[in-house]
Structure formats: structure tokens, C-alpha cells
TrEMBL record, chain A:
It catalyses: a di-trans,poly-cis-dolichyl beta-D-mannosyl phosphate + L-threonyl-[protein] = 3-O-(alpha-D-mannosyl)-L-threonyl-[protein] + a di-trans,poly-cis-dolichyl phosphate + H(+); a di-trans,poly-cis-dolichyl beta-D-mannosyl phosphate + L-seryl-[protein] = 3-O-(alpha-D-mannosyl)-L-seryl-[protein] + a di-trans,poly-cis-dolichyl phosphate + H(+). GO terms for biological process: basement membrane organization; dentate gyrus development; reactive gliosis. Pfam families: MIR (PF02815), PMT (PF02366), PMT_4TMC (PF16192). It is a multi-pass membrane protein. It comes from Chinchilla lanigera (Long-tailed chinchilla). InterPro entries: ArnT-like_N (IPR003342), MIR_dom_sf (IPR036300), MIR_motif (IPR016093), PMT-like (IPR027005), PMT_4TMC (IPR032421). This is Dolichyl-phosphate-mannose--protein mannosyltransferase. PANTHER family: DOLICHYL-PHOSPHATE-MANNOSE--PROTEIN MANNOSYLTRANSFERASE, PROTEIN O-MANNOSYL-TRANSFERASE 2. Belongs to the glycosyltransferase 39 family. It is found in: Endoplasmic reticulum membrane. Pathway: Protein modification; protein glycosylation. Residues 404-460, 473-529, 534-591 form the MIR domain. Keywords: Endoplasmic reticulum, Glycosyltransferase, Membrane, Repeat, Transferase, Transmembrane, Transmembrane helix. The chain crosses the membrane at residues 171-192, 212-233, 296-329, 349-375, 666-689, 701-724, 736-755, 767-790.
Length: 820, 712
């Protein structure tokens, strides 16, 4: 039990350990077989004629759009003509009733135009077929070999376990909000998993336990990322090739694929992030029909997705920030539109407050309400929470507790720090190591319930057994001088003028003495905060301070984690600064005294807002506690975009079945180049526009796509990436993946626009179309080929490591830091 | 040419007596009885030791800021003829007669005094009335916290001075931009902006915030310039280039210059040597350089070396072994190999010497000519004093059970074979054929049998490609071994190494190492009695006791004028609300203010409120120990905003003459109150008068203020 406080860290650190070797005879056959991908779709046939015509018909509408500050069309020499029409029909009055993802194409098919209906229907069907193909391919890649390997991979050990906790309804603590784990638990429950698997460590085989439901849910949600990205890019750039390129980048990225195939929070988180982004983009494009049904639909869907994203991980805050910025800009435009009355603007504001603030908050709280209702049994997370919180959990000793109310000499007690997630005063049979204060027994705080948390309260001057029935009961009063004896080791709580192990300006606290006989440094004055002298001390409710008699310092916990010698428990010190902080205030939790009558204490039940607040405080403290230790090899944010180092999901040695989370280097390095290229071309374009350069209409349209559509995606990338540089907590490679989604969308938009601009410079239109098509096609094929090369990273490798020339991955270890 | 022959030479002096007067009272308030108290006050104990280091030319490393500020303080000591002999060990210690207290405190006091007229000029350059400008200067003049801070050897007042100078010169530049760009005056103020920014950053890293503010405002103005279609492309390009040179290149060059001067001045080895790399230490006079002078450069088979761990945390240490063996069974019940211990020892010791041996030969001496060890060579490491070989095997290490134990092999004749072959991996190699060089090369030892890497604490870490400094070692002391016999070798090890070649590190290498160490050195976040949180600053809920007279109750506190602090915070809030109100109304097409007034109002807010926010809000993200004096730069910006807000209220919100008169009366009453408070707090600012306990208690206006009262 002693080292369990380092649970999260320890288990994560343990992941690179090799998984047990597996005999994988039949599995060897497949890795190379399904490389026959369905060929890349041909350059879309609808990118053809009727450019000039449609452009003309679209122009009055374009002006409206421009005044609204919305995305102008990408007019590119007949290449984008049809896209224009699509947008037009989408926003036109006829499309008002068209709802849903397929609404666009249906509406496009319905709106009568100068083209004959046959080709229109063909075009609509083509678009739908393309979307279906993208979705299908995404699902196919994500579900392929989902059951492999049939053992715990990496963090499945945490999230699978937490899913089991929901099924068993036992309370636990985690640093992330509950939605993701609840969904995992639900999927497990529906697929017949009974919550009995222990999920002890990576590499444990599932055997007869049903795990496919939980992996299936993650793969299902992860598969939607590709069509979502496709639709977002389509909406932002109005260009099918850009959307296709994005979809290909994400489908063929081994990293996204790997991350979607296991029981992890990331696919769920990314699903909600992309859903929020998609609905935001969609409602932006409905802006010219405010308060219509689709407008309300997309707006509220944005709010719902935001609640979902935040409910899975706090990283969801970044997408909230993005939607918030977008909304502020949007309202600013509306506010500056003098044709709208203030009442209308007020309505707009209220609609956004309702859908983007109130609705997500309500949903978020509902998630917690469900979480707290489901988990009603005592479990491993109890100790993280206050005594009042624990009283709600059935099976906890505080649930419907009946304990003696007032503290008396001879009582056996546990003492809990009032600051959240500090834990119980604890000691054990280990000494402080040499060179760290006096070599006496360690005193720490510990978050889990344990026999070593028990202390006996004794008078300072007698060593007689107060439980001797011949003595009368004597209550402890405010201001009394007491001694606290550790029950298991019979040492006294002791302090002296030695510096504390971590907080050098405080004094060390130790366990001292033999069988309760120590010295005057064992005496503490017990004080109740805000009370007068002579009062009795109430269990659970009195907030007490322990003041060391000789040095005058106050017993407290600094909240710092001790190194390995202290079993990664928290430091206890005696602080000479008498400021009242929660760190130095304690309450008595368990109380055993056979001489006193037990009294039922059920008035403690905290209200829901209190529970919510406490849960968040504990989560935030937990997150801050995940600090990298010196000498640890940690992943740095600058490693991520260059794909510097991956994560071992499973296996390490040549004989193991190995899965390695690593981005497809072709995709990732293309993304990296694209960001630089985007910054360059974007600033050139911005400066040209600021200088008032006269651009041809087509070029101007493309520039606006680049600046506005690309800008929005770039903002998403920055918001999901840069904050990590400021974070003090321990970071992992997979934290980059939400940002990577945005970066891939940027790549799609950028290359399509650049190729169009290049093609625009050519005189002959057929040649221009050719250049564009060849460019996009080669990018698509290049991505697909790189996936063919790197797919074993995700689907599993066996055989020797890559430095061995006989390995299937030989020659692919392009960076020395990759470990496969 | 020769125009003076035709026309008389006329010098028209245009002296603003206000500025002269403000400078005068500023100097008076800051310099009055400057050398009192003749004792170490608060952080003087911290900066003082660095002044002494400069005086003695001894190298030191301080992670609190770049060296320019320290050098300014040391300049005072140099001018005052300080010899650096004072033991800076406790606050309150009396200065000995060799310490020129007045000269040492002069520079901060001068910068503090000059900030007063600069406040005047900034507000008038913002095109607010002369009255508002005077108000701003008078507020800076009587603010007690600013007075206290500038009368001592501390760096806040130079920092504030350079912050204000940067803003002022940018405003002057911006105003002359409208009239005649590229004239001498324009260039002067533009360059001065860059110089002031560099100085601000050079004094304290906090100066970066003001630098960012100036850069941001300059960026927005440059963007407007790009949009100005009356200018030709070439003209715009020249404008941008001039700004880039002045505001980016100049500060960078100056910043490097500060370090250059710093490193040139400090050429002797000192107490912080050990934090730096061996190569850096070798470049300092004395210390390691004395030992390493004249060592052979290339490590050869048979060389005798000491191996220092590059990581250097928590302590710099050398690979070490001694006769003692690992205990058979550890306290927690795990077993060991019971072979000779290998540790990393933080002191120089005879047991730190190792001999590099070629596994193929039995010789322990350098052959003639020496055979240098190259990257990738397989070597054995022989412990000099015990002649045992460095060995690792699949036994758990004493403290880190996941890693392998490293020992010096003792053949117990049990079935545990020696595994003592190490492949040399030069981390900073130029090519794969590189040879191993003393001090310059950083090497890893990769165990041949298990691919483990020799690492601090000393354990064999399973090979992981993530490079970490704790796995890297370098050769510090080195000589070619000549004795084959064990006894001769022991004698040889005891004799010091000799001869003389200097190994000079380039300035850029030394700069980047020093800068990197300064940024990454994590000093322990010490709790301090007077530390505070940013939230306590805005309304002055905290103070710092700087000094207490050893006998009487005369004392110096960092304690602000609460009337000024509160009204400055209120004014900032009022400004923000008014700004938002006007902004929204403008968006709806209602222009409350004339266009030029609006632009002035916005620029004043950007510089002053923006300066306040940039200098204040980042502290919420910082994890280091914070003190009230960190707020002073932000406060200065706030004070500059206060008079413009008052003027705005009087000019635009007071409709009638009567209202305006009433408002003026209120302002005068308020300022008198501020003066009165300032006067009441004066004994705590100058520490010149001993107050009775009753008077002290009467000054304790807030419960959270900590005013020292002697128990009689």
C-alpha cells in the first residue's frame, strides 16, 4: 500500500517496459496484405465547365457575403465555379429547410439552375459518394485489426480500469473530468463486459474478458474525425480537392490511427473538438439566415460539443477559447452593422449566451451529476476527498457513521489535512535517509486509507493507558498539551530544529521515541481555529492546529512530493510562519474510543455545488501534482511537430508484438513545411492587401480563403499547441494530436490554394487544370504510399527491430530517436 | 557652408522651468541623507555581494537577471573607490568605513529622481494638458514606495527609469514621424528607444514586458504605415528597415555587449565555477585552469583521467570508486552483487582517477606515439587505486531498482562473469572518426553486453535514445600514464598534472552557456516572511520591512502611499470602462469624442493601461517567490494614467462650469490628502525618526501590514 500514491506516474513510467513475449504465428501473415488500398478517387469530374456562367450569376450574392464579413468564394478560373454554386444554394432561401450534413448536396440538386438537372443530380450524387467513400475508408482503417493485440496497451490500464469502476459503481479519483471514462464504461457495459478484469499493467492479456466494445467505441468516435475534417475544410475553402487532401492526410496518418484504436480518452476528446469546430463553421455559414432552424441547430450543437470536449479532458478549454473568440468577432460584426437594431443584436447575444454558455454549463454539470450518482460505493479514490464528501459513499466508514463525537484521551484517530488532496497524517517504519535531517522515522501525508494513518492521542505527562477502565473518561480540550503516538510503531510525533527535507525553511517532523517514551520535543498544543480555551474538540467538524511546544511552529504539509525514499508521499513539516493557511489546519476523521458512546453523524451531506467545487479542486491539484521529476526523460512540446519521438504502446523487444505511436513522418513533415509556407504566403498576401495592390478577382478570392479559412484553422493549431509550453505538468507526445488535426486541415487548404494560384498564373485553362490536378494527385498518392510503408507501426510489428536489416521496418528508422 | 559669416550664430535656449524644478525636487527627495542608514538594508545584502565580485573580478552566476543592472551598481562602487572587501552576510550589518555607501546608492537614486521629470514629459508627449503632466510627475514624486526603492542599492529604480525612457523616446519618435521622418531628431529618438529597451531588459528580465509593449505599439504603427498608400514602396521599406534595425537589432547587439563586458570583467574563478562546464571553468583564471593547464588534448589508451558528470545536478561530481563493497543485502531486502562500489563523488579525490585501457592489451601505459581513442572504440575503465575494472551486469542498482548496478569487478569465482567492455560514444562529435578530447568532448559509455548507459547515481540505464545530460561525462583532468607497476602508478596519481596550453572558448560559446545556465538554474523557491501574492498588491495589502535600527524603533519599510495606490487602481478601472463604452458607441456610429481626441485617449490607454497589464498580469503565471516590489514598474504606468483620466473627466464629462470647478476642487483636496499621507508615512520611508510604539500602531492602517514594534 505504501507506494500507491505515485500510482499515475508509476504506471505511466512503466509503459516502456517490454510486454510479455507473444507467440503470434498466424498474425504474421497479414501486415502486408491489406496494402491494396482502394485507388485514389480520380480528379473530380465536376470541376469542369460552366465557370464563367455561374460566376456571373453568383456575383450579386457575393457582395452580400462580403458585407457580412463572411468567407468570399474561391473563384479560380473555372476550377471553383461549381463550388460557388454549392455555397450559394446552401445559403439561398430555398435551402432553408435543408438540414444535416447532406443538406448541401440535396439542396444543390434541387435548386433549378441553368444546367440541366441530370448533370446536377450526378454532381450531388458524386459529392455524397465521395463523402461516403471518405467515411468508409476511415472506418475501414480504424476497425481493421482492432482486436490486436489482445492485451492491455499503454494507458488502457488506466482508462479501462476506470471504465470497470463505473460498471462496479466504485468511487475513484482521476485528474480528468468523467465523460470520457463514463462513455467507455457504458460501451463496456453494453457490449457485455462485466467489470471483472483488473487492468493491472500494460501487457496483461484480456483472455475471455470482452474488450472489443470499449475499443470499438473509441475507434467509432475516432473514425468520425476524418469526415469531420473533410467537411470543415470543404466549408472553409469551398474546394473539394482541399477537403480530399485533408481527409487523406488524416486517414493515412499512423498516429491518428493508433490513437483511435485503443481504450483512451483522446479519440473521444478529438471527436468532440472536431464536432465543435464543424458545427461552428457550419453555423458561421448560416450567418445570413439567423434564427432559422439550421442556424439554431448548428449553434446548439456547437454548445453540446463544447460540453463534451470539456467533459473529457480540460484540454477542451482550448476549443472553447476558439469558439469564444469566433463568437466575439461575430458579435462585433453584428454590432457594427447599423442596419440591425439594438434589439436584434441583443437577441443575437442572448442566443449565443444561451447556446454557448448556459447549455454547455448545464450539460457539464449534468455529466458530473451522473458521475456522482453512478459512483456511490466506496473505492480507491476516497482519501483524496474531504471527510464530508466521503460520507456519501456507501461502504466508507463515514457513511451513516456513528462514532464518538468528542475527542478524549486514549482515542485512536486519523488526522486529515484540510487542504484538498493532501491526505492523512502518516508514518511508517522507514527512516529519513542519511543527510536529510535527523535519521529518525519518516512522517508524511498519504492519500489512501491505511493502518499507518492511525494515531493515539495521549496526555503529555503520563504514559498510563487511558483506556484502562478504572480511569474516568477525560476529554481533550482546546489548548491542551498532548502527545500523538503512532499506533503501529509506537513512536511519538516529534519535531526539532532540523530543516525539513524539501522546504528548507521549515522544521523536520519525525517519529521519535520507543514505546511512547520520547522527550519534550514530542509535545504539541492542540488548538481549535476560532475557539476559546476550554472547549471540547469535535470529531470531523473542529478545525484544529497542532503547535509544537518547544519551537512554536505549526504542523503542516507543504504538499510537495517526496522523492523515492519517501515513497512519493507528501512532505510534512513544522512551519515557523504562523499565517493561517489550509495547509496547517487539520480535522479528525476516524475516531475509535470504546469508552464513549457512538453518535450518528449524518448532517454532513454536502450539497451538489460543494461536491462539484471540491471535485474540481482535487482534479486541479492532481494535475499540478503530475510534475516531471529531475532526470526523467520527458517529452518536450518542441519535439512534437517534428515527430521527434513516439510512444511505445506495446512491446519493446524483437520477439514482442510491437505497436508504436508515431505520426506518419511524410504527413507530419508536410504539415510542418505547410505551416512555415502558410506564414510566408499569408503575410505576403496580407501585406499586399494592406498596400492596396490590385489583384485579379480570382486571386483575391483565393487570398481571402487563405487568410480567413486558413487563419481560423491556424488559430486552432496555435490554441491547441502553444499553451503546452507554459504547462508545468508532465507532458506526453499524444497531447499534440488535437493540434495535429488543425495542422492537417491547414495543409489541405494551403496546398490547394497555392496550386490554384500557380495554375492561375498559366494562360491556358486546360493546362492550369492539369497542373492543379497533378499536384493534388501526387500529394494524395505520396501520402498513401507513405502509409503503405509505415502502417506496421499502427497495426503491429513482429520480428527484429528496425536497425536489423532483416526487419520488416528496415530502412524506415529515419530518425535515431524512433524506437521501433 | 560658412553661413555663419553671413548671419550671426544664434543659440535659442528653450528651457522648461517645470522640468528643471521637477528634477530639482526629485533629486532632493531621493538624495536627501542618502548614506543613512549606514547599514545593509534588505536586498542590498544580495546585490552587494555581486558588487564585491565585480570589484574583485571574480566570476559569479546570478539567475535573477542579466548582468547590466549588477554592472550599473558596481559602477557606483568603482567610482566611489570600493575595494570589494565587505562581508555581505546579514541585513542590518553596519558598513565598514571602506564601503562608499553614498556612491553605491547614488545611481539608483539618480535614476529614481530622473523618473519624475520623465513622467511629466511622457504625459505631455501624449498630448495631454500641462496640468495633467505636472500631476503625473508630482504623483511619482511623493509615492513613498518609489522613494524607498530608489534610495537603496536595488535594481527596480533603474528598471523603471529605462522603462519610462523607452516609452518616452518612442513617443518623441512617433510625434516627429508626423513632421519630418528620417531627420536627425527622428533617428535619435528611434535609436534611443532601442537602447532603452535593451537596458531595461539588461537590468532585469522583467524589462521584457515593456520591450514587448513598445514592440507591439511600434508594430501597429508600422502596419498603418504599410497601409498608407501615399508613400512609395521604397519609402515604406526604408521605414520598416529603420525600425527593425533600431528596435530589434540594436537591443540584441547591446544585450550581447552587456554579457561581453560582464565576461571580460570577471576573469577569475570563483564560488559558482562548479555549475559551469569544464571548458568554461578552464577559461577562467585560477581554479580549474590552474590544474588543467598543459594537459594532453587527446585521450589515448593508457591515459589517466577524471570523469565529471556533465549534468551537474544536484551537485557536480566525478566518477569514483573505493575499496568498500556493496552490502550483500540491502535494508529493503533486495540483494546485490557484493562487488566494489562505484559512486559519483562531489569532491576531488585520488579515487576519482581512472585509466583508459585497451581490452586487447595488458598495458596500462601510453604507447609511443600515443594511440588516441576514437568514437566507437571499445575500452575498459580501470580504477587507478584498486586496479579493478568498471563493470555492470543485470543486478538491480541500489537506489533505482529498474536500472543496472555498476561495480568494480571482483572475481568471487562464482558464475558471474565480468562484463567490463564499454563502447565510447562521443556525443558532440563532428564526424564518426573524432577522437576523444580532454574537457571538450562530451562522451557516453555504452555497455557492450547490455547496451546500458553509464549514468549519474551511478547506474547503468537501459539504452534509451532520448539524450540526457546525466548520461554524459567529460574528462576533466588528464595525463598520459607512464607507470606499468601498480605502486608507481599510485605515486604518479598523487603528483599534480602540469604544463601549459590555454584552451580559449569563443565569446558566443561562453555567452550561450552562461545564458542557458542562468535561465535553467532552478533556485529553490524559498518561502519568505514578506513574500506576497499578486492579488495583494493592487490595494496594497502587504508591505516589506526593509530595515530596523539596532537600538531605536527607527525603521524602513517598502510601503506605498495608499491613497495613490487605491486611486490609481480606480482610475485604471474607470479608464477601461470608459474606453469600452466609447468603443461600443463608436461601433454604432456615435462619436462622443472628436477623432484626434479619441486617438490620443486610445494611445494613452494602450501605453499606460497596457504597460500596467503587461507588467502585472504575467506574475499570476509565475511560480517563483514574489514580493511587493515586483509591482512597482506596473504601478508607475498606472500613475501615468491617473492624471489623463482626471483631465478627461473634467474636459468631457463635466458639462457645466460649476461641475468643472467642483471637480477641480475635489482633485486638489484629493492631492492634498495624498501629500498628507505621504508625509505621515515619511518616517517609515526614510527611517530617519524613531517613533513611539503608539505612533507606530497608529500607522498600522491595515491589519495585514507588518510594522515592527519593539517589546520593551
Amino acid at each position: 500500500m505504501l507506494c500507491a500514491s505515485g500510482r499515475l506516474l508509476a504506471a505511466r513510467a512503466a509503459t516502456p517496459l517490454p510486454a510479455p513475449p507473444r507467440a503470434r504465428g498466424p498474425a504474421l501473415r497479414s501486415p502486408r496484405r491489406e496494402l491494396h488500398f482502394p485507388g485514389q478517387p480520380e480528379p473530380p469530374p465536376w470541376e469542369s465547365p460552366a465557370g464563367p456562367l455561374t460566376r456571373q450569376s453568383a456575383s450579386p450574392h457575393r457582395r452580400v457575403i462580403l458585407r457580412w464579413g463572411r468567407m468570399p468564394p474561391a473563384v479560380g478560373r473555372g476550377l471553383a465555379g461549381s463550388e460557388l454554386r454549392l455555397r450559394r444554394s446552401r445559403c439561398g432561401p430555398r435551402a432553408a429547410r435543408a438540414v444535416g450534413r447532406d443538406g448541401a448536396t440535396q439542396a444543390a440538386a434541387r435548386s433549378p439552375k441553368r444546367r440541366d438537372p441530370g448533370s446536377r443530380r450526378f454532381e450531388g450524387a458524386g459529392r455524397q459518394a465521395l463523402l461516403a467513400l471518405v467515411t468508409l475508408l476511415s472506418f475501414a482503417t480504424r476497425f481493421h485489426r482492432l482486436d490486436q493485440p489482445p492485451h492491455i496497451c499503454w494507458d488502457e490500464t488506466h482508462f479501462g480500469k476506470m471504465g470497470s469502476f463505473y460498471i462496479n459503481r466504485t468511487f475513484f479519483f482521476d485528474v480528468h473530468p468523467p465523460l470520457g471514462k463514463m462513455l467507455i464504461g457504458l460501451a463496456g457495459y453494453l457490449s457485455g463486459y462485466d467489470g471483472t478484469f483488473l487492468f493491472q499493467k500494460p501487457g496483461d492479456k484480456y483472455e475471455h474478458h470482452s474488450y472489443m466494445g470499449m475499443r470499438g467505441l473509441c475507434a467509432f468516435l475516432g473514425s468520425w474525425l476524418v469526415p469531420f475534417a473533410y467537411l470543415i475544410v470543404l466549408d472553409l475553402s469551398k474546394s473539394l480537392p482541399a477537403a480530399l487532401l485533408t481527409a487523406a492526410l488524416l486517414t493515412f496518418d499512423t498516429g491518428c490511427l493508433t490513437l483511435s484504436q485503443y481504450i483512451l480518452l483522446d479519440p473521444i476528446l478529438m471527436f468532440f473538438i472536431m464536432a465543435a469546430m464543424l458545427s461552428m463553421v457550419k453555423y458561421n455559414s448560416c450567418a445570413n439566415r439567423p434564427f432559422s432552424a439550421p442556424w439554431w441547430f448548428w449553434l446548439s450543437l456547437t454548445g453540446i460539443s463544447l460540453a463534451g470536449a470539456l467533459g473529457v479532458k480540460f484540454v477542451g478549454l482550448f476549443i472553447i477559447l476558439q469558439v469564444g473568440l469566433n463568437t466575439i468577432a461575430d458579435l462585433w460584426h453584428l454590432f457594427g452593422d447599423l442596419s440591425l437594431s439594438l434589439v436584434t443584436v441583443g437577441k443575437h447575444l442572448m442566443a449565443r449566451v444561451l447556446c454557448l454558455i448556459v447549455l454547455p454549463l448545464v450539460l457539464y454539470m449534468a455529466i458530473f451529476a451522473v458521475h456522482i450518482m453512478v459512483l456511490n460505493k466506496s473505492g480507491p479514490g476516497d482519501g483524496f476527498f474531504s471527510s464530508a464528501f466521503q460520507a456519501r459513499l456507501s461502504g466508507n466508514n463515514l457513511h451513516n457513521a456513528s462514532i464518538p463525537e468528542h475527542l478524549a484521551y486514549g482515542s485512536v484517530i486519523t488526522v486529515k489535512n484540510l487542504r484538498m488532496a493532501i491526505g492523512y497524517l502518516h508514518s511508517h517504519r522507514h527512516l529519513y535517509p542519511e543527510g536529510i535531517g535527523a535519521r529518525q522515522q519518516q512522517v508524511t501525508t498519504y492519500l489512501h486509507k491505511d493502518y499507518n494513518n492511525l494515531w493515539i492521542i495521549k496526555k503529555h505527562n503520563t504514559n498510563s493507558d487511558p483506556l484502562d477502565p478504572s480511569f474516568p473518561v477525560e476529554f481533550v480540550r482546546h489548548g491542551d498539551i498532548i502527545r500523538l503516538e503512532h499506533k503501529e510503531t509506537s513512536r511519538n510525533l516529534h519535531s526539532h530544529y532540523h530543516e525539513a527535507p524539501l522546504t528548507r525553511k521549515h522544521f523536520q517532523v519525525t517519529g521519535y521515541g520507543i514505546n511512547g517514551t520520547g522527550d519534550s520535543n514530542d509535545f504539541w498544543r492542540i488548538e481549535v481555529v476560532n475557539r476559546k480555551f476550554g472547549n471540547r474538540i469535535k470529531v470531523l467538524r473542529s478545525r484544529i492546529r497542532l503547535i509544537h511546544l518547544v519551537t512554536g511552529c505549526v504542523l503542516g504539509s507543504s504538499g510537495k512530493i517526496l522523492p523515492k525514499w519517501g515513497w512519493e508521499q507528501l512532505e510534512v513539516t513544522c512551519t515557523p510562519y504562523l499565517k493561517q493557511t489550509l495547509n496547517s489546519i487539520w480535522n479528525v476523521e476516524d475516531h475509535i474510543n470504546p469508552k464513549l458512546p457512538n453518535i450518528s453523524l449524518d448532517v454532513l451531506q454536502p450539497s451538489f455545488p460543494e461536491i462539484l467545487l471540491e471535485s474540481h479542486m482535487v482534479m486541479i491539484r492532481g494535475n499540478n501534482g503530475l510534475k516531471p521529476k529531475d532526470n526523467d526523460f520527458t517529452s518536450k512540446p518542441w519535439h512534437w511537430p517534428i515527430n521527434y519521438q513516439g510512444l511505445r504502446f506495446s512491446g519493446a523487444n524483437g520477439t514482442d508484438f510491437r505497436v508504436y505511436l508515431l505520426g506518419n513522418p511524410v504527413v507530419w513533415w508536410l504539415n510542418l513545411v505547410s505551416i512555415a509556407l502558410y506564414l510566408l504566403s499569408g503575410s505576403i498576401a496580407a501585406i499586399a492587401m494592406q498596400r492596396g495592390a490590385k489583384l485579379p478577382t480570382e486571386v483575391e478570392g483565393l487570398t481571402r480563403v487563405l487568410l480567413q479559412g486558413g487563419g481560423q484553422v491556424l488559430l486552432g493549431w496555435m490554441l491547441h499547441y502553444f499553451p503546452f509550453f507554459l504547462m508545468g505538468r508532465i507532458l506526453y507526445f499524444h497531447h499534440y494530436f488535437p493540434a495535429m488535426l488543425f495542422s492537417s486541415m491547414l495543409t489541405g487548404i494551403l496546398w490547394d490554394t497555392l496550386l490554384r494560384l500557380c495554375a492561375g498564373a498559366l494562360t491556358s485553362s486546360s493546362l492550369a487544370r492539369g497542373v492543379h490536378a497533378v499536384g493534388i494527385l501526387s500529394l494524395l498518392l505520396g501520402t498513401a504510399y507513405s502509409f503503405y510503408l509505415f502502417h506496421p507501426l499502427a497495426y503491429g510489428m513482429v520480428g527484429p527491430l528496425a536497425q536489423d536489416p532483416t526487419s520488416p521496418m528496415a530502412g524506415l528508422r529515419w530518425l535515431e530517436s524512433w524506437e521501433f | 557652408m560658412l553661413g555663419f559669416l553671413k548671419r550671426p550664430v544664434v543659440v535659442t535656449a528653450d528651457i522648461n522651468l517645470n522640468i528643471v524644478a521637477l528634477t530639482g525636487v526629485g533629486l532632493l527627495s531621493r538624495l536627501w541623507r542618502l548614506s543613512y542608514p549606514r547599514a545593509v538594508v534588505f536586498d542590498e545584502v544580495y546585490y552587494g555581494q555581486y558588487i564585491s565580485f565585480y570589484m574583485n573580478r571574480v566570476f559569479f552566476l546570478d539567475d535573477s537577471g542579466p548582468p547590466f543592472g549588477h554592472m550599473l551598481l558596481a559602477l557606483g562602487g568603482y567610482l566611489g573607490g570600493f575595494d570589494g572587501n565587505f562581508l555581505w552576510n546579514r541585513i542590518g550589518a553596519e558598513y565598514t568605513s571602506n564601503v562608499p555607501v553614498w556612491a553605491l546608492r547614488l545611481l539608483p537614486a539618480l535614476t529614481g529622481a530622473l523618473s519624475v521629470p520623465m513622467g511629466y514629459q511622457i504625459v505631455s508627449e501624449l498630448r495631454f494638458s500641462h496640468c495633467a503632466a505636472m500631476g503625473a510627475a508630482l504623483l511619482l514624486l511623493i509615492e513613498n514606495a518609489l522613494i524607498t526603492q530608489s534610495r537603496l542599492m536595488l535594481l527596480e529604480s533603474p528598471l523603471i527609469f529605462f522603462n519610462l525612457l523607452a516609452v518616452l523616446s518612442y513617443l518623441k519618435f512617433f510625434n516627429s514621424q508626423k513632421q519630418s521622418p528620417f531627420c536627425l531628431r527622428w533617428w535619435f529618438w528611434l535609436m534611443l528607444t532601442g537602447v532603452a529597451c535593451a537596458c531595461a531588459v539588461g537590468v532585469k528580465y522583467m524589462g521584457v514586458f515593456t520591450y514587448l509593449l513598445v514592440l507591439g505599439v511600434a508594430g501597429v504603427h508600422a502596419w498603418h504605415l504599410i497601409g498608407d498608400r501615399t508613400l512609395s514602396n521604397v519609402c515604406v521599406f526604408c521605414h520598416l528597415l529603420a525600425r527593425a534595425v533600431a528596435l530589434v537589432v540594436t537591443p540584441v547587439v547591446l544585450y550581447l555587449l552587456f554579457f561581453y563586458v560582464h565576461l571580460t570583467l570577471l576573469y577569475r574563478s570563483g564560488p559558482h565555477d562548479q555549475i559551469m562546464s569544464s571548458a568554461f571553468q578552464a577559461s577562467l583564471e585560477g581554479g580549474l585552469a590552474r590544474i588543467t593547464q598543459g594537459q594532453p588534448l587527446e585521450v589515448a589508451f593508457g591515459s589517466q583521467v577524471t570523469l565529471r558528470n556533465v549534468f551537474g545536478k544536484p551537485l557536480p561530481c566525478w566518477l569514483h570508486s573505493h575499496q568498500n563493497t556493496y552490502p550483500m543485502i540491502y535494508e529493503n531486502g533486495r540483494g546485490s552483487s557484493h562487488q566494489q562500489q562505484v559512486t559519483c563523488y562531489p569532491f576531488k579525490d585520488i579515487n576519482n582517477w581512472w585509466v583508459i585501457k585497451d581490452p586487447g592489451r595488458h598495458q596500462l601505459v601510453v604507447s609511443n606515439p600515443p594511440r588516441p581513442v576514437q568514437h566507437g572504440d571499445v575500452v575498459q575503465l580501470v580504477h587507478g587505486m584498486t586496479t579493478r575494472l568498471l563493470n555492470t551486469h543485470d543486478v538491480a542498482a541500489p537506489l533505482s531498482p529498474h536500472a543496472q548496478e555498476v561495480s568494480c569487478y571482483i572475481d568471487y569465482n562464482i558464475s558471474m562473469p565480468a562484463q567490463n567492455l564499454w563502447r565510447l560514444d562521443i556525443v558532440n562529435r563532428q564526424s564518426d572518426k573524432d577522437t576523444w578530447k580532454t574537457i571538450l568532448s562530451t562522451v557516453r559509455f555504452v555497455h557492450l553486453n547490455t547496451s546500458a548507459v553509464l549514468k549519474l547515481e551511478v547506474v547503468g540505464e537501459k539504452l534509451s535514445p532520448g539524450h540526457h545530460e546525466s548520461m554524459a561525462w567529460n574528462v576533466e583532468e588528464h595525463r598520459y600514464g607512464t607507470s606499468q607497476e601498480q605502486r608507481d602508478r599510485e605515486l604518479e596519481l598523487h603528483t599534480p598534472t602540469q604544463v601549459d596550453i590555454s584552451r580559449n572558448l569563443s565569446f558566443m560559446a561562453r555567452f550561450s552557456e552562461l545564458q542557458w545556465r542562468m535561465l535553467t538554474l532552478r533556485s529553490e523557491d524559498a518561502e519568505h516572511k514578506y513574500s506576497s501574492t499578486p492579488l495583494e498588491w493592487v490595494m496594497l495589502d502587504t508591505n516589506i520591512a526593509y530595515w530596523l535600527h539596532p537600538q531605536t524603533s527607527a525603521q524602513i519599510h517598502l510601503l506605498g502611499n495608499i491613497v495613490i495606490w487605491a486611486s490609481a487602481s480606480l482610475a485604471t478601472a474607470a479608464y477601461t470602462l470608459l474606453f469600452l463604452w466609447y468603443l461600443l458607441r463608436r461601433r454604432r456610429g456615435i462619436h462622443d469624442l472628436p477623432e484626434d481626441m479619441w486617438l490620443r485617449w486610445a494611445l494613452a490607454g494602450t501605453l499606460c493601461a497596457g504597460g500596467w497589464a503587461l507588467n502585472y498580469l504575467p506574475f499570476f503565471l509565475m511560480e517563483k517567490t514574489l514580493f511587493l516590489y515586483h509591482y512597482l514598474p506596473a504601478l508607475t504606468f498606472q500613475l501615468l494614467l491617473l492624471p489623463p483620466v482626471l483631465q478627461h473627466v473634467s474636459d468631457h464629462l463635466c458639462r457645466t462650469r460649476l461641475q468643472r470647478s467642483v471637480f477641480s476642487a475635489l482633485v486638489i483636496a484629493w492631492y492634498s490628502a495624498a501629500c498628507h499621507v505621504s508625509n505621515m508615512l515619511r518616517p517609515l520611508t526614510y527611517g530617519d525618526r524613531a517613533l513611539s510604539p503608539g505612533e507606530l500602531l497608529a500607522l498600522r492602517w491595515k491589519d495585514s501590514w507588518d510594522i515592527l514594534i519593539r517589546k520593551s
